[in-house]
Design goal:
By secondary structure, the protein is of the alpha+beta class. About 30% of the residues lie in helices and about 10% in strands. It is built from four helices and two strands, in the order E-E-H-H-H-H. Strands 1-2 form a two-stranded antiparallel ribbon. The longest helix has 10 residues.
């Protein structure tokens, strides 16, 4: 991997060219974040964020990388996914958040 390889803002692992990746709006577009700051993530990391938190929760309390990393479920996920190779992709562990 060269210095040009992007780093996932959530898990901190490199994102190789062949790995699915996506941009995450720190404030969801539906909650006024259109045109706002975005971060590049592994697709698996992005899916886990949206499986864990609602759009309202993201807008209200989890609109920075630091607060996302501090969420208990996401913190456990990061610990789990960091043990996988950078190109690892799979279905998100667990289902949609409990209401």
């Amino acid at each position: 991997m060269n210095s040009e390889t992007p780093i996932c803002a959530l898990c901190g692992r490199p994102i190789p060219p062949e790995a699915p990746q996506s941009l995450h709006h720190l404030v969801p577009k539906l909650k006024g974040g259109k045109g706002g700051p975005t971060v590049l993530l592994h697709h698996i990391c992005h899916k886990e964020i949206h499986a864990t938190l609602s759009e309202a929760e993201l807008a209200r309390a989890y609109n920075t990388v630091e607060t996302l990393r501090a969420h208990p479920r996401l913190s456990r996920f990061i610990g789990w996914v960091r043990k996988r190779p950078p190109g690892f992709n799979s279905r998100s562990k667990g289902g949609r958040r409990k209401r």
